[in-house]
Every structure is written in structure tokens, then in C-alpha cells.
Amino acid sequence: MGATHDDSIRITGAREHNLKNVDLEIPKGRITVFTGVSGSGKSSVVFDTVAVESQRQLNETFTWYVRNQLPKHERPKADTIERLSPAIVVDQRPLGGGARSTVGTLTDIYAILRVLYSRCGTPSAGEATAYSFNDPAGMCPECAGLGCTTRIDLDRFLDTGRSLNGGAIRFPPLAVGTAGWQIYATSGLFDPDKPLDRYTPREWDLLLYGKGFTVKRGERAYNNTYEGLVENFDRRYVKRDVSALSEKARAMVRGFVREGTCPVCGGARLTAAALKSLVAGRSIAEMAALEVTELSDVLRGIDPAEEPVGAAVAARAVTALDRLTGIGLGYLSLDRPAATLSGGEGQRLKMVRHLGSSLTGMTYVFDEPSTGLHPSDVRRLNDLLVRLRDKGNTVLVVEHDRDVIAVADHVVDMGPGAGAQGGEVVFAGTVRGLAAADTPTGRGLRRVTGVKADVRTPVDWLTVRDVTLHNLKGVDFRVPTGVLTVVTGVAGSGKSTLVSEAFVGAHPEAVVVDQSAIGVSARSTPATYLGAMDAVRALFARENGVPAGLFSFNAAGACEECRGRGVIHTDLAYMDPVTSTCEACRGRRYKDEVLGLTLSGRSVAEVLEMTAEEAVAFFGAGGPAAAGSGGDEAAGIERKLAALVEVGLGYLTLGQSVSSLSGGERQRLKLATRLHRTGSVYVLDEPTTGLHMADVAGLLELLDRLVDDGNTVLVIEHDLDVVKRADWVVDLGPGGGRRGGEIVYAGTPRGLLAARGSVTADCLRGSLG
Ligand code: ADP
Ligand code: ADP
Ligand code: ZN
Ligand code: ZN
After folding, report:
1. Quick check: keyword ATP-binding in the entry (predicted)?
2. What's the whole-number mean pLDDT along residues 151-160?
3. I need a surface site. Which of 223, 499, 567, 606 has the fewest CB within 10 A?
4. Considering the chain, what is the average pLDDT of its residues?
């Protein structure tokens, strides 16, 4: 180890996950980038050691009472961790807040606008809460500030080709013969044998919205009880506390409703009074619907001579808005629901919040902040990291992007390999030193690849025409089949909208491999997800002459303490849940008697601790298969796990919880289950997320093999190494949001090199050194 500085975070003997007694110094007040192949141990150092210990030490400074309310962190496995400063983790986990949270509320810019309207809006609606859709004073009474309402879906509810007697009402509680149905069919108001599509407008209105008639039901007459179908449905299922309904009833009702824009506020979420109040000719909802850059221009236009107070408040909003633009999010609008943002956009929003704060002496920790960023935007990202540092903070970044690595004051390269082959610091020093180092990252930095010249010839074309969704301006999109197509463009240019919504919507046969959460139980592991676990259990059962169920971690053989999860979750009302290793089984998930049963000398827990790569060797030649029985099962397991290795996940253990995987890892895990098809159209959104330069080469080989096997591959990607290997490139732009939404180039990557007016082309030329 080099000289010891007082101004360094010092770690000795770190052993989380695969770390091999790592000793490390991280300079304070500097930007340190952690590099290395996936699974080498970057996160284990940065998140699981530094950030966790910092949080734990901070919690210890609170009183016993407060401490008891905070999540408990187990001390990371390390000998010493010294001179930490409080850490703030800026990751890609979804932003909370639910349906009420928008870009405007998350950044607090909407709160500034509310102050502006309460002071300067004409007519004023009142104080600042009168403009808040999260406050009863300001929220639209119809939709409670959500902007959308649940409404009956009449297309599903009624079959207008039929009569009431003929079953026109499809909703089961009002089926022919029921008491509910009688209200309509035997009321005397309608001809029960007349198909609904021949009703007069008046009859139609009566059927849906009529109210307060005396009606007959069978032989009896009822006073003023008639209620049209829509009124009745709303009262019973919509305008009430739906949590009182059974889950079954709710599921049934869900089939007959549709989410729609609130008819009262038109989606603006606010009361009529708030929407009438104008500043610079616009309502607050109209302001929130503008793109950030446009809003900034409008607010700048408020004249301090005429509106001294308003101009001062607006100036505060402008400062915050320009920060958003500065990080490449100028195409968003304040009314954009948080739930519709991508992980990368969310991370950059969180960054903006921290930039606005005046904290100093903190440690900021970032997880691959370049995700979703076009190479041309990475420069702005670097500016932000530098500004955080220059405010007196320590900045730690896990990153693969060579342009982000370039901004580092200090680099820590983990490796050399993944899992058991990693866990060491293979290089620590300057970027220049790393570029000369004999490590996978050093070699990756030195390698400059050219643009592919001999591209494949398309077999045919798949098309979507005149797409106008979100910002797309009547785009005709043609995707060649039998080749590798890459869609590029700056953030917000419309790539996801065009590919994941329009194209996939028009071609439902496409195999979409995305980064979304895998809807599986807390016990799911790569082995169960791939369907390899049944065969593993069968092999253990046959070998030991016991039932296979014993080896299932949700049945008889499971540890009773943790029910086979290996960990214990403690839920806290308002905090992140705390997870600790189960003491009864020490994380091994099984009862002791099950752990005594072996296959080729290994217990089931030991098999689950193997990486996919190790397990391929274990179940392959020389493994249980060679022992005689169970050859088919072993071969099946080997084949499924080999797919994991093929997609670059050979370092995952069979028993690792699927919920602990990153977005990029989840995407590759899904890909592993969908390999070996032919004639398919694969659609992937940024598959290089989380991949080291060395792993990108492996991913490219895999994509090439998919194409050679007779598939069509369509990817959204920023990584220029992927763009260079494409057969066909479609570049969207020229900018983001309203300034994007057009195809600025479609053709071969070679042709892109010569293209003008495309920022992707500029970056591609720049990358050739
Ligand atoms: P990187 O950040 O470089 O991709 P990680 O630090 O996430 O690498 O992982 C290093 C090793 O630790 C890998 O072998 C990985 O499978 C393992 N690992 C990571 N998280 C866990 C976990 N929660 N439980 C068990 N093993 C883990
Ligand atoms: P890219 O994938 O190139 O980053 P997107 O397709 O995500 O771009 O976005 C294109 C435009 O559509 C942007 O202006 C973005 O704000 C807008 N947009 C994307 N998704 C939504 C959504 N769910 N609701 C409203 N606007 C959206
Ligand atoms: Zn409303
Ligand atoms: Zn247990």
C-alpha cells in the first residue's frame, strides 16, 4: 500500500461477497471511478462496504430512541473502515411517491411555481396550497388530484348488437335473469327485445344515465329507484372505498373499467379556481406541461420592472430548471409522472436535487450514471460530477463508460475476473496509468475498433407507419429482417417510444427482452428462473433415495426459521426493510438433515453456491452424468446454465436471489431463457447496461450469433462499439423532446460516418481517434 493520507477513506481486510481481503485508500474531495468486469466486486466495495458502513456509523451517532427507528445495518465484513464521511447513494432505483409524484414535485420546482401563482396569479386562487394537486385545497374534486379517473368501459360492458333479453349487458352481476337485470328489462322503460344499437338517443340516455323513476320489477312497483347503468356502476364500484370489495370482485370489475383523463379538470389535476388563475397568460397546469427549456424561457420573460416579486420567485425556478437542462433532461415537463421515467432519468433527477443543496463534506455514490445517456450528453454528466466535487464532496462512481472514466482523479480497477476470479484491486492510480495497465479495463481502453464494412443484406422489412406517439412526428420506421439494427439518438429523442411502444405494439410477435422487474417470488434464483432446479432436485432425490420435494426451498426440507429464503426481512413502517442472514441455517436455506445428503460429494446448498460457470463443469462431463444415472437431467441442467454463461452471467451463483440483480443483469437473465429460437424478432433496450468493455465484446458475439441463426435483432443502444457492429442504424433526433422525434439517418454505419446534422455521427467520428 502507498503512503497513508489523512484525507483518504481507508479500508483494510474487506471481505464482502467475493472481496479477497481488500486494502484500499480512496482520496477525499476527489472523483474516484471504480472499474472492472461485471461481478468483479465494484458494488461490493462501493455500496456494500463504504456506503453501508457510513450509514451505520451515522446511525450510531443518534440517540437510542432514534436509532431504534432506523434500519439496522449489519457491519460490513472488513477489518477497518476509517475516515468515512456521510454517504448519499444516488442509484437507479425507482423514485417513490406513487401517482402523486411528478418531475415538478420531485425537484421541488412545482412548489416554487405555486408560490409564484399565489403571489402574482390573476385572479389569485388563494394561498400556495390552492395550487397544489396534493392538497385538498387545490386538488380537482372529481379525480382527487390524480388527473385521471376510472370509468366504465362501455365497449366491454355492453354488446350493442343484442337486446336486454338477448344478453346485451355483459357485466356478470347484471346477467339475464338477475334481479339487477330486471330493473332494466322489466321496467317498462325499454323494449327488452330491441337491440341496443336501435335505441333512440333518449332511450340510450335513459339506459345509461336516467335517475329517479318509478319502475316495476316483476309484479311490484318501486318508487324513484331507477338508476341508469353508468350511475349504478359508478355508485357501486367507482365512487366508493374499493378496498371494502373482495379481491375477486375487484378483479371482475377491473375487466369492465378503463383509466381515462379526468373529465372535470381535463388531466390538469387542479380545481377550476386554480386553473383560472394566470401568470404571463398561462395557468399553472399549462406551465407544468411545457418542456423544461420552454418553461425556463417563459419565466425569464417576466419583467422585474412590472412584477418585482414575481420575477424574483421566477428566477429561483429558472436556476433549478437550468440544472435539469444542464444534465440533459430539458425535454421533460414538470407534469410528467415519476412512474414513467426510466432508471437513468430518475438517477439524474436525484442528482439535480443534490446539486441544489449546499451540503459539503459528503460522499456521493453513483451507480453507472451514464445509463441512458447519449455519448454527447456524457460531457454534461461529467460537468456535474466535477461540480459536486468542487463543492467539497467525495464522489465515487461505478462506471464502464470510457468517457466517464476519463474524468476520474483516481481509478480503482477491480478484477481480474468475476466472482471467485475477481475480488482484488488490480490497479489503483490515474486514468493514464490505467490505460497502460495490463488488466481487462486497461486493454479495453487501448482498443479502438473500426466501423463494420461488410454488412449483412436485409431479407425483408418490418414497418410501422406515421407514428405520432409522444414526440414522434409522423415517423415511418422500417426494420430490416435477418440483420442487426441499432437505434440511436440523444436521451428523449424518441427511441423507446418508437421501438418499445410503436414497433412492439404493431409487431406483438417480437420477443421483448427488457430490464423490468421479473415478477417472481422472494425465493426465486437463477436456477429456478431457468427451470433447472427441478432436474437438480430429481438428481439429488434419485442419488439419495428420498423424495425430490425435500430439496425444494419452499417445502419440507426448507429451514423453518427463514422458510427457505436464507435471509430474514424486517419491515419498518417508513424505511427500507432490513435484511439479515438467517442464523438458523446461516443463509443456506435448508434443514441440517437435507444438507447431509450429497450428489457427487456436494450438498444441495453447495450446488446453489456454485457460479453458473462452475455448475456447467459440475453437471457436464465428469460430473453426476458420468456417474451413470441421471444423464439426461444433468445434460438438461448443463444446457440451461450454459445459456447463462453465454449471456455473460456465468459469475452469478445458482442460489442468488433474483431480486438482488441489477436491471442489466435481469435483462440478460431473460435473454438466457429465450435463446436458441430461430425466425424471431428480438428487441432489447440498452443491453450493455452494467457491462464492462470486455463483456460488450461477448454480448456482441451473442447478438451476431442470434442473427446468424436466422433471427432479427433490434436494439436501442448508446455504446459506440455496438453501433459500429450494426448492419443498419436508425438515428433519431436531432434533439430531445419536441426538438426530436424525427429519423435523421437510416442506413449502414459507414454511411452514418458521413452523415451531417446527427450528433451520433459526430460522436462516431470522434471515437475513431
Ligand atoms: P460488480 O459491482 O463489479 O458487478 P459485485 O460487487 O456486484 O460486482 O459482485 C461481486 C461478486 O459478489 C459476484 O460474484 C456476485 O455474484 C457476488 N454478489 C453480489 N451481491 C451478492 C449478494 N447479495 N449475495 C451473494 N453474492 C453476491
Ligand atoms: P428516448 O428513449 O430516446 O430517451 P423516449 O421515447 O423515452 O426517448 O421519449 C421521447 C419523448 O416522449 C420525450 O419527450 C419524453 O419526455 C416523452 N415521453 C416518453 N414517455 C412518456 C410518457 N410515458 N408520458 C409522456 N411523455 C413521454
Ligand atoms: Zn380532475
Ligand atoms: Zn434459515
Report:
1. yes
2. 92
3. 223
4. 89
Residue 638 has pLDDT above 90, yes or no: yes
Q: Is the CB of 332 under 6 A from ligand 2?
A: yes
* Ligand in nearest proximity to the CA of 133: 3
Task: Tell me the three cell numbers of residue 50.
Answer: 463504504
Interval between CA 661 and ligand 1 midpoint (Å): 9
Closest C-alpha to ligand 1, atom 24: 656
Q: Whose C-alpha lies nearest to ligand 2, atom 16?
A: 332
Q: How far apart are CA 45 and CA 81, in angstroms?
A: 11
Q: Is the CB of 651 under 6 A from ligand 1?
A: yes
Quote ipTM for the complex: 0.92
Separation between Cα atoms, residue 6 and residue 28, nearest integer Å: 9
Burial of 100-139, coded b for 16+ CB within 10 Å and e otherwise, reads: bebbbbbbebbebbbbbbbbbbeeebbebbbbbbbeeebb
Domains delineated in the chain: 8-94+341-446 (3.40.50.300), 103-147+264-338 (1.20.1580.10), 149-261 (1.10.8.280), 460-510+680-766 (3.40.50.300), 526-660 (1.20.1580.10)
CA angle (632, 635, 636) in 5-degree steps = 85
Instruction: State pTM to two decimals.
Output: 0.81
Amino acid 218: pLDDT: 63
Q: What integer pLDDT is reported at residue 576 of this predicted model?
A: 47
- At 61 the pLDDT is 75
For 572-601, the pLDDT digits (tens) are 444 445 567 888 888 888 999 999 999 999
Which pLDDT does position 574 carry in this prediction? 42
Ligand 2 centre to CA of 332 (Å) is 8
Q: What confidence score (pLDDT) does residue 575 get? A: 43
Strands 8-14 and 22-27: antiparallel
Which ligand has an atom closest to residue 149 CA?
Answer: 3
Q: Cα(660)–Cα(654) distance, rounded to whole angstroms? A: 13
- Cis status, amide bond into 337, omega within 30 of 0: no
Residue 19: helix, strand or coil by DSSP? Answer: coil
Q: Pick the closest to residue 581 from 570, 594, 571 (CA basis).
A: 570
Residue 604 grid cell: 444441495
